[in-house]
Amino acid sequence: MQSGSAITVAADSNFIAYSLKATLQHNRKAYTQGLVYWGDKLYESTGANQSWIAEVDLESGSQKKKVVLKKKYFGEGITVLNNKVYQLTWKHNKGFIYRAGSFEQLGTFSYGFDGWGITTDGQHLIVSDGTHRLHYLDTLTFAVVKSLEVKENRAAAKQLNELEYIDGYIYANQWETNYILKIDPTDGTVVGKLDLSPIADQIKREYPKANVLNGIAYNPKTEDILITGKRWPRAYIIKLN
Known about the structure:
Blueprint: E1 2-3, E2 8-9, E3 18-25, E4 32-38, E5 41-46, E6 52-56, E7 63-68, E8 75-81, E9 84-89, E10 94-99, E11 105-110, E12 118-120, E13 125-128, E14 133-137, E15 144-149, E16 151-152, E17 155-156, E18 160-166, E19 169-174, E20 179-183, E21 190-195, H1 197-206, E22 213-219, E23 224-229, E24 234-240
Antiparallel strand pairs: 1-3, 2-3, 3-24, 4-5, 5-6, 6-7, 8-9, 9-10, 10-11, 12-13, 13-14, 14-15, 16-17, 18-19, 19-20, 20-21, 22-23, 23-24
């Protein structure tokens, strides 16, 4: 782990200020779809032709445990609720349920849209489908309880991807941008955004094969956020100011 620089990205208008705290190693083969903390452990899910879930060592970026999906499945986001890991797939309308800690498969579930990102408010699973909509799923029946339309300045905030629930708000990577949107779940309004361009631009200059920003994991113990991207060789710990 390398300590972060002292730079702070200042807030301007609707932008949220943050500081870079540390730089970590990350598996550059990982096409990152989801990140989530479970206690002191970090889980990562990946997609493309290398879809897996792994427990990641924060110091080295190496994987301690891994579940590899069959090649027909394109893995997507993950979240943890009640000691169960929920994993989405992209076009198959099928999710997998594992026991947290061991990754023993406990079951599957279905949904009627593309699976992209997933998080939880502690009661429901909240799923993005690549549009401006977020779907709340019942954890027993997996039926859609409600769908939330996300808007920024009264326009649809499209391409919502990886999700994380932090202090009563939903944070969402906006695919193919360097933004993380902060969403009020009561009405779907974007109330703030993080511009990760300084980090993403540096990565792409140094590693041209690095793909888009994606991956948000909130550590409630430290109140830090871990972010990375698809096939990025680094991950970063940031602190919201």
